């Protein structure tokens, strides 16, 4: 079994970010820490152990998640971007540098907005990054998908472009 030294991360106590959300919440209206805790809960729902890091001097990491599966597991570093604007390619590249520095198996950028082509292409080339945009955020037990500010209720899903399908 692989163990990870969590002492090098300044972790925050858990916070219930789901309590009080209605069935179609506006994620951009959440405070940044609340959004990070919501993302942590998403990773816990899919079976990963996860923690939110402190807000400052966090090396560009908003959360860490650990997949304990022997063959495919490892440390995941997470960047959570609660914004109305596209996430820059520089943000994605910076997380790749953090992945290298922390010897992380995977880097994940989660946003309420979207990613441009340069971000998608870079993440695809690394082979170890996942980009999750606002259209693909799902919270089991709360809602099927979060609504973005100004978005009509229950829009038709748009196909993902530039991302590999997970096996």
In short:
By secondary structure, the protein is an alpha/beta fold. Helices cover 23% and strands 16% of the residues.
Give structural notes:
It is a single chain. With 167 residues, the chain is of the alpha/beta class. It is built from three helices and five strands. A five-stranded mixed β-sheet has the order 1-2-3-4-5, sandwiched between helices. The radius of gyration is 15 Å and the shape is globular. The model is unreliable at 141-167 (pLDDT under 50).
Compile the SSE list and pairings:
Layout: H1 32-45, E1 49-52, E2 63-67, E3 74-81, H2 89-102, E4 106-111, H3 117-126, E5 129-132
Parallel strand pairs: 3-4, 4-5
Antiparallel strand pairs: 1-2, 2-3
Whole-number radius of gyration? 15 Å
Sequence stretches where pLDDT stays below 50 over 5 or more residues: 141-167
Q: Report strand %.
A: 15-25%
- Percent of residues in helices: 10-25%
User: Quick one: how many beta strands?
Assistant: 5
Q: What is the terminal-to-terminal distance?
A: 24 Å
Strand arrangement across the biggest beta sheet: 1-2-3-4-5
Helices and strands, in N-to-C order? Answer: HEEEHEHE
Largest sheet: 5 strands, mixed
Which class best fits the helix and strand makeup? alpha/beta
* Overall form: globular
């Amino acid at each position: 079994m692989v163990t990870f030294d969590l002492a090098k991360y300044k972790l925050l106590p858990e916070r219930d970010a789901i309590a009080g959300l209605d069935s179609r919440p506006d994620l951009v209206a959440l405070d940044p820490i609340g959004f990070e805790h919501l993302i942590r809960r998403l990773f816990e729902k899919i079976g990963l152990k996860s923690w939110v890091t402190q807000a400052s001097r966090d090396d560009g990491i908003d959360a860490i998640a650990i997949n304990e599966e022997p063959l495919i597991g490892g440390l995941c570093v997470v960047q959570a971007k609660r914004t109305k604007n596209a996430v820059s390619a520089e943000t994605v590249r910076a997380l790749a540098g953090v992945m290298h520095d922390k010897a992380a198996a995977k880097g994940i950028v989660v946003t309420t907005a979207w990613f441009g082509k340069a971000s998608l292409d870079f993440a695809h080339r690394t082979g170890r990054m996942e980009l999750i945009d606002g259209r693909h955020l799902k919270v089991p037990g709360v809602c099927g998908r979060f609504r973005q500010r100004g978005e009509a209720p229950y829009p038709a899903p748009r196909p993902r472009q530039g991302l590999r399908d997970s096996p």
